[in-house]
């Protein structure tokens, strides 16, 4: 009896950690690497303040979304359709478009990663291999467990390698700590970009929908959901902090980063050719886990609309990845499309978070559950702030 309980607790812990890593690795993609390096270059040690504020906002957004999904025992699109018929279909469309376009970029990033690791391999060939690996995860019998395990292993590898590069780059840690709390300058746009890149679009729903699919739901599961949600932000933030320190160490030494590939410059200048190969591994790990997370979460937004979509969910994910890979190989990286959808994704978070906050006070959705007032207020501030900045970014296109 005791052994059975221990086995169940271990399985539950692995599931919660798997959901956390799925969300975190969905956030840590090629764009994540570039954004962090570029902002470090422009803000130097003061970028630490941006990271600190974005972490707090990320946690506020994620806790709101994951808790309400768990308590309602419904996915985001179904919650939205209950509030206003048709709203869930609209949100699902936005998420599918955004997830698909960014997945093309993720496939390209994975191809670039293998190109760096193996030298003579073309990015297109690398993309095809990476797409095949991602697809294979959803062809096994227990795809959910395979996905969790893959996200966990790949996530651990890229965080560990980035920590190594941060150490060898010998960053001015003391200055970074001071400027994190007393910055020389504050960049609001950078904060919004980081929040959108960590919990924007489909990303914040990756772990929430995964937990729901695995049966972690109801008010009784709130404690577990909170732990998993905060852990996910923690994992992504650890990666962000050490990448920031690695870049800061290289920049502080007087090196000018290559504008064509800033994160590659950081790894190469910090640790030589070995560092460049490490960058390839980190880039591939970040991109391929984002392929898996984007495909799984995007498809999760339409699976509940019809029993056949639910039945053939894994097949839809395979098609999603296959089409993303084919388009990258045929067309290359569609920069204009990615820029357009980047602005679109900036609008998705305030819409979905706003819907969740309203749903938290609808008894037909959450029953007798009482949502904490502080979470509502924090969520409202994030939603309004992201809406304003998202519209500004969208209008500049």
From TrEMBL:
Stated name of the protein: Iron transporter
Any GO BP annotation: iron ion transmembrane transport
Main localization, broad class: membrane
GO MF terms, alphabetically ordered: cadmium ion transmembrane transporter activity; manganese ion transmembrane transporter activity
Keyword hit for Transmembrane: yes
Any one Gene Ontology cellular component term annotated for this protein: plasma membrane
UniProt xrefs under InterPro entries: NRAMP_fam (IPR001046)
PANTHER family hit by this protein: SOLUTE CARRIER PROTEIN FAMILY 11 MEMBER, TRANSPORTER PROTEIN
Membrane-spanning intervals of the chain: 43-61, 82-104, 116-138, 150-168, 188-208, 229-254, 274-302, 314-331, 337-361, 373-395
Pfam family, one: Nramp
Membrane topology: Multi-pass membrane protein
Subcellular location: Membrane
């Amino acid at each position: 009896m005791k052994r059975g309980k221990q086995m169940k607790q271990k399985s539950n812990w692995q599931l919660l950690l798997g959901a956390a890593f799925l969300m975190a690795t969905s956030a840590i993609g090629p764009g994540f690497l570039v954004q962090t390096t570029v902002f470090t270059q422009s803000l130097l040690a003061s970028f630490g303040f941006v990271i600190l504020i974005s972490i707090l906002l990320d946690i506020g957004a994620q806790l709101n979304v994951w808790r309400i999904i768990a308590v309602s025992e419904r996915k985001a699109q179904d919650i939205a359709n209950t509030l206003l018929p048709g709203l869930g279909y609209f949100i699902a469309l936005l998420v599918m478009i955004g997830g698909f376009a960014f997945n093309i970029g993720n496939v390209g990033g994975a191809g670039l990663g293998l190109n760096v690791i193996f030298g003579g391999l073309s990015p297109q060939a690398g993309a095809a291999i990476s797409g095949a690996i991602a697809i294979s995860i959803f062809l096994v019998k227990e795809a959910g467990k395979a996905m969790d395990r893959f996200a966990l292993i790949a996530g651990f590898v890229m965080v560990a390698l980035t920590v190594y590069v941060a150490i060898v780059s010998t960053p001015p840690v003391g200055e970074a700590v001071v400027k994190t709390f007393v910055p020389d300058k504050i960049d609001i746009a950078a904060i919004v970009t980081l929040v959108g890149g960590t919990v924007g679009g489909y990303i914040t729903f990756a772990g929430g929908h995964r937990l729901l699919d695995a049966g972690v739901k109801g008010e009784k599961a709130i404690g577990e959901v909170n732990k998993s949600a905060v852990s996910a932000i923690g994992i992504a933030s650890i990666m962000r902090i050490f990448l920031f320190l690695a870049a800061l160490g290289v920049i502080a030494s007087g090196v000018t980063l290559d504008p064509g590939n800033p994160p590659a410059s950081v790894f190469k200048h910090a640790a030589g050719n070995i560092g460049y190969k490490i960058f390839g591994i980190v880039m591939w790990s970040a991109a391929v886990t984002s392929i898996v997370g984007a495909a799984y979460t995007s498809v999760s937004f339409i699976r509940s609309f019809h029993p056949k979509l639910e039945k053939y969910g894994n097949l839809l994910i395979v098609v999603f990845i296959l089409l993303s890979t084919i388009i990258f190989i045929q067309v290359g990286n569609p920069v204009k499309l990615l820029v357009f959808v980047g602005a679109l994704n900036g609008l998705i978070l305030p819409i979905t978070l706003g819907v969740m906050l309203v749903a938290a006070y609808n008894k037909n959705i959450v029953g007798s559950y009482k949502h904490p007032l502080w979470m509502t207020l924090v969520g409202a501030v994030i939603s309004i702030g992201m809406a304003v900045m998202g519209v500004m970014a969208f209008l500049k296109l």
